[in-house]
Specification:
By secondary structure, this protein is an alpha/beta fold. Helices cover 33% and strands 31% of the residues. The strands form 3 sheets. It has a 6-stranded mixed β-sheet with strand order 6-7-8-3-9-10. A hairpin with a 2-residue loop joins strand 4 and strand 5. The radius of gyration is 24 Å and the shape is globular.
């Protein structure tokens, strides 16, 4: 079942069409990547999903129903720009934000303490937001977004300002939330994070979705039949009919199949030459490479 369905979404500001006939679905329990260059229409799309603004046309369905006001309480949205009150103390602010999302004071206080402990910042309760670093504010913003146990969590650049240790800490919590049933929409410019975290993606450019699907399937779709081999021995490249040499040297060989040969055929041909193969793999394009290629072509 899908937790979110968007059908033919259009949004125009004056003469600028921010979203143009966008349709995609987000499966329940998935980590779903929403990608696109600056100005592509992602932020407008997120605001429509969260009902901050209304689409000019099209339908948004949440958990099988046309979006209603009460669905707000089931969504957590962490914007790229922080929305924290700088003069308030961390604990006081998080309890306040939790109560705005429907928690009573006792439950909100307990959940805040649990989250502060989980993210190793239990002694920050009485610190003011303005006294925290950018990365530390990001951890507080993450807690504020997840405090009410939303069904759908929308994270816009959640690792901004975080060092590698704290990035891994937040990443682990994202996977734990997914394990417990939360659906996560992940918006970022960091393509390596997309490959590591997301199961499916939609790529938006110039207000349109130009690519969508499972990450693994997309990488297979755009592969170029290139293979990398690490070996010992003397390779006779003239005997490898139907392959172009992309790179060779120091026991490394990158070949491109030009006649649709399978990986097994290439490996067999190399072994028949008496080579000692240490490593053999098909080179798949990264999401970053696909992203650049598709954006430039659209």
């Amino acid at each position: 079942m899908n937790i979110l369905e968007l059908e033919h979404i259009n949004k125009t500001y004056g003469k600028h069409q921010a979203n143009r006939d966008i349709s995609f679905v987000v499966p329940k329990g998935s980590i779903y990547g929403m990608l696109g260059p600056n100005g592509a229409g992602k932020s407008t799309m997120i605001r429509i999903i969260t009902n901050i603004i209304a689409a000019d046309s099209g339908v948004v369905r949440f958990n099988g129903e046309v979006f209603k006001e009460q669905h707000h309480q089931l969504i957590g949205y962490m914007p790229e720009e922080r929305g924290l009150y700088k003069k308030m103390m961390v604990g006081e602010q998080l309890v306040y934000l939790g109560r705005l999302k429907g928690l009573n004071k006792v439950d909100a206080t307990k959940k805040v303490k649990d989250w502060l402990e989980k993210l190793h910042i239990a002694d920050w309760w009485s610190k003011k937001i303005e006294d925290l670093s950018k990365g530390m504010q990001q951890k507080v913003q993450f807690i504020a977004t997840t405090l009410h146990d939303p069904m759908l969590l929308i994270l816009d650049e959640p690792f901004s300002g975080l060092d590698p240790v704290n990035s891994n800490l937040i990443k682990d919590e994202i996977f734990e939330l997914q394990r417990k049933g939360t659906t996560i929409i992940f918006s970022t410019h960091r393509m390596e994070q997309v490959e590591e975290i997301c199961e499916e993606i939609v790529l938006i450019n110039n207000g349109q979705n130009i690519l969508q699907g499972h990450v693994k399937e997309i990488r297979q779709r755009f592969k170029e039949n290139k293979y990398q081999v690490l070996y010992n021995g003397e390779a006779s490249l003239s005997a490898l009919n139907g392959y172009d040499v992309v790179e060779q040297g120091n026991g490394k060989l990158i070949l491109k199949a030009t006649q649709g040969q399978s990986p097994n055929q290439l490996l067999r041909a190399l072994l028949d030459q008496g080579l000692e193969i240490h490593h053999f793999n098909e080179i798949l394009p990264s999401i970053n490479e696909i992203f650049i290629r598709q954006v430039q072509a659209s």
